[in-house]
Amino acid sequence: MKAEIISEINNKVSDLQSGLFNLSQDIHDHPELGYHEFETVKKIKNYLRTQDVEVEDNFCDIPTAFKTSFVQGKPKVHFAVLAEFDALPKIGHGCGHNIIATAAIGTFLACRQVMKKYNIDGKVSLIGSPAEEGGGGKIKLLERGAFKDVDASMMVHPTSGTTRIAGRCTATYNLEIEYIGQAAHAASQPFKGHNALDAANLFFVAIGLLRQQLTSDVRLSGIIDDGGNVTNVIPDHTKISFSLRCLEETELKDLIEKVKNCVNGAAMATGCEAKIIEKPGYAARVYNQTLGNVCRKALEDLGEPVLSGFPDDFGSTDFGNISQIMPTTNPYFSLHKTRTSLHTAEYEKLSGTDVSHKAISRSAKAMARTIIECLVDPDLMEKILNEKNTFNDVNKRPR
Ligand SMILES: [Zn+2]
Ligand SMILES: [Zn+2]
Hints:
With 399 residues, this protein is of the alpha/beta class. The protein folds into two domains: 3-169 and 285-396, Aminopeptidase, CATH 3.40.630.10; 171-280, Alpha-Beta Plaits (2-Layer Sandwich), CATH 3.30.70.360. The protein contains eleven helices and twelve strands.
């Protein structure tokens, strides 16, 4: 790509950056939870209006989702950049979604600028996806057709340590387990009872033993929501909330079966009845190496050190569901050299200080360059679309 296009992108983001920093700070200082990000979205819309951008409200019938697109000429490629903006209960912006949102806005505006100036054909969309923290906003958007004509997408996430282009992250699946037993006096006639707490205990013992036969990427965690009421009654009801995670979507089915066998084995051993409610979570994230390496080069050219390869994460994201159906890349931009966990008060502070500014401007520059490279280079786009082994199911692609 011509050097002057790259400098135009960088100059545009530099021009925008003080406005983006202010917007990021404002979002950070007024956190809102998933699907309730009304004031946040209002601020984003007001900012975009100052840049002559109108957004589609209530996108896909989700009140805090939005979309805006810029189309130039006859687009062959439609690229989406995603903005998250929800916060966490009690912690606020401890996941730095204020940075994700403003970097995505900068990306969109820089793309529009160079597409206009250099007559670059293509379509670029900015999609505001609410409720990443457990609400699955992108899954709802996906189900309602928001991505049906999108060819590829990307988003940045803040991190700490060294900046990286993210590899896989875990798929999640949740089970609500209930044991129904038979109550009895715990001292005078315990032999008449079927102890639902024994079933719950046995389940956790079985899970503990199961771990040895599982691959090291698997994460199993659970809590007892209801463990009985009083000590002198054999509990006739217990309830467990349980989560499964693993890196490969294809392994998840087998893992769910193994955990269900533990549930049912514990029921059989204690004479209780087991009920399981299944709640699918987020899909595993897969990654496109070709697209990721374009973004890596863009970041490195800006002076940002980037870890080699595509390191795995053990968290989960609803961007995983998007990555299953189209080429995606997910740069993780470091705010701080010392590793600091996301979802903590420390990280909330970092996301609202000046260290977040470099993350916003550099990732906007790198993402805009990545998108424009895809628009101007049909061979590159072809290679990205045809890359094997990064999708679990190529037939699920929107087109
Ligand atoms: Zn988070
Ligand atoms: Zn996050």
